[in-house]
């Protein structure tokens, strides 16, 4: 209260009346607990006995209540720190689990792409081989293929030939899709399993009889396909070197010059000796040349997709596909020459093995494809390649191998249906096919070919 410079009033008894500004603050008082009073009494007792109390210079250190509060605060601090550490630990655990799930998902995605490409390859090679057989079956009653309108209408109106042609084209498109997903070193060996699919198709659809070697070859090719799929890895697109492409072209050209020179020498010797039948070396050369061209066709097709992945123009895809078609056409030409005068067993075997080896080697050399990083994957891939090649060789040579079995075993395996079919096949096998327009791929069964094969004893 302001008294405007005057003295404050006095009350009764002469006591000066001061204005009331509220009670004392709680901070002006020190609160002592019962435990502190007990500790103080103990200190006084120790002093009386002559003991030192330097250990209790401050009441806060010896106050049990304060110590309890400090323990509670310390526990809370450590508990909060533990919560923080736990949250960090959970965060790192979540990151590790998410990284692991991401890697597992990526591996599963790669496996899915690999198996998808293998299934596409099997469907493509089945379409190619079955389509060739249907075309061959349709050309029996058709004239030789030419550009005349009547001939083209006759071929288009023939259902087996038209269906086989569509299956062949569809198989080629599926093969291109498979090459865009997987490396050539995986696609090309799996394409050799088309012979096994064709064998099963001929057994159930064309009622062909299969011997024990046919089934063994089919089983080996199937196991090899599973091995290639389990061991194959998706390849990272590497830079294609122009020098490697030039080296590859030079090696292929030199190989063809060498094979043709070798073929010319044997032809001249055969003419000098006035021999009508082809030598085994000539059949092998025709098979190798066609197989190398088939393998190079796959490599060139894959090369177009790799160029586009590296940022080049999309025109490389149709350009490489056109070159691939030229390689396949030239391979069909060499194979037809070999099948026309030589034995289908030798030509088909050499062509199938050469196409697989060429696709694998050229894919690794020119496209930078590598073997799997893991030892188990590398072993599975190599075993798959080996089993597929052995299965193809068994399928092609099964009819010749069955002759070396004991006669009693052959009789036990041969039924009346097989005897009747063997008689019909022998009669039709002797007839000469004069149709040069029918071209069969390297992976076609030799007993489905109507081309004559003059076997030498």
Automatic annotation (TrEMBL):
SUPFAM superfamilies: Multidrug resistance efflux transporter EmrE. Coiled coil: none annotated. Residues 1-22 are annotated as: Disordered. One of its GO terms (molecular function) is magnesium ion transmembrane transporter activity. It comes from the Eukaryota. Keywords: Cell membrane, Endosome, Ion transport, Magnesium, Membrane, Transmembrane, Transmembrane helix, Transport. InterPro entries: DUF3511, EmrE-like, Mg_trans_NIPA. One of its GO terms (cellular component) is plasma membrane. It is a multi-pass membrane protein. Pfam families: DUF3511. It is found in: Cell membrane; Early endosome. The chain crosses the membrane at residues 160-180, 186-205, 212-230, 236-263, 284-308, 314-334, 346-367, 379-402. Belongs to the NIPA (TC 2.A.7) family. Acts as a Mg(2+) transporter. Can also transport other divalent cations such as Fe(2+), Sr(2+), Ba(2+), Mn(2+) and Co(2+) but to a much less extent than Mg(2+). Homodimer. This is Probable magnesium transporter. The lineage of its organism: Eukaryota, Viridiplantae, Streptophyta, Embryophyta, Tracheophyta.
